[in-house]
Structure to design on (132 residues):
């Protein structure tokens, strides 16, 4: 069982499943949404992700019509994104996780739009867009 929370602590969640894939997403939307060089994101099963506290604080923003980005309205922590055409998957923002994760699959995504001031210095696979 994984647990996580936002910065102010109002939002708490549990994930009853394995986290075995981590995408380091360099797309411009993730950079702006997170204010960082890239977002560390894990696809998780929507039905196994439970918000145990602070549901009333969750606010969704859509930078594109088909995808919501959900964050804590109180402190601004990004929590997950979800595409309307993939309702069974939520893409959890891993920085909010409070439990350790060792993922077997990890990669950089959308490196074609990465920040010019950030250099990737690890050996993880790099994809120009989404991995195939
Ligand atoms: Zn918060
Ligand atoms: Zn992205």
């Amino acid at each position: 069982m994984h647990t996580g929370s936002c910065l102010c602590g109002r939002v708490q969640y549990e994930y009853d499943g394995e986290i075995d894939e981590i995408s380091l997403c360099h797309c411009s939307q993730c950079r702006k949404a997170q204010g960082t060089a890239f977002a560390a994101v894990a696809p998780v099963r929507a039905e196994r992700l439970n918000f145990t506290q602070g549901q009333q604080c969750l606010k969704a923003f859509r930078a594109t019509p088909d995808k919501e980005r959900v964050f804590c309205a109180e402190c601004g922590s990004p929590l997950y994104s979800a595409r309307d055409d993939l309702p069974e998957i939520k893409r959890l923002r891993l920085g909010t996780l409070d439990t350790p994760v060792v993922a077997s699959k990890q990669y950089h995504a959308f490196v074609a739009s990465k920040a010019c001031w950030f250099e990737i210095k690890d050996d993880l696979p790099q994809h120009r867009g989404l991995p195939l």
Notes: The chain has a mean pLDDT of 97. The chain has one helix and ten strands. Residues 25, 27, 29-30, 39, 110 surround zinc ion (ligand 2) (CB under 6 Å). The radius of gyration is 14 Å.
